[in-house]
Design goal:
By secondary structure, the protein is of the alpha/beta class. The chain has helices spanning 8-15, 19-30, 38-47, 53-62, 70-85, 92-104, and strands at 4-6, 34-37, 64-66, 107-109. Helix 5 (70-85) crosses helix 6 (92-104).
Length: 128
């Protein structure tokens, strides 16, 4: 079974109680294959309201956290440069999340398909 790096948008949908994301994430947790980038952890904490702290903490601790490494940051920079030459500017955070998935061999669960031009890295059933 492939491991999944949960993008921030999917985490937010889950925390807001959207059934579709609950149906996605709960089996990932049950199979111990749910991962979250440390950058998504930052985005979740940066955007949460104080009343959401407890549920956000529970969500984060239910996932395995992927930290950054020299290899990941190098790959992230390569992704950024490659697409910048093609006229597409991606955010640094998205490039680093993408690189994390690539290096760690995860698929990315996201609704933000435009943030990840290489569709091979995406969890395919979310692309429908």
């Amino acid at each position: 079974m492939e491991t999944v790096l949960i993008d921030t948008d999917i985490a937010i949908d889950f925390l807001r109680g959207l059934l579709e994301t609950k149906n996605l994430i709960l089996p990932l947790w049950e199979n111990n294959i749910a991962f979250l980038s440390i950058l998504s952890v930052y985005e979740l904490y940066a955007g949460m309201h104080p009343k959401e702290q407890e549920i956000t903490n529970h969500f984060i601790h239910a996932c395995k956290i992927e930290t950054l490494s020299l290899e990941i940051t190098r790959h992230g920079a390569e992704i950024y440069q490659h697409y910048r030459k093609q006229g597409l500017t991606l955010t640094s955070i998205d490039c680093l999340i993408w690189a994390t998935a690539k290096v760690k061999k995860h698929k990315i669960a996201t609704r933000n398909f435009k943030h990840y031009p290489d569709k091979n890295i995406l969890l395919t059933h979310l692309m429908r």
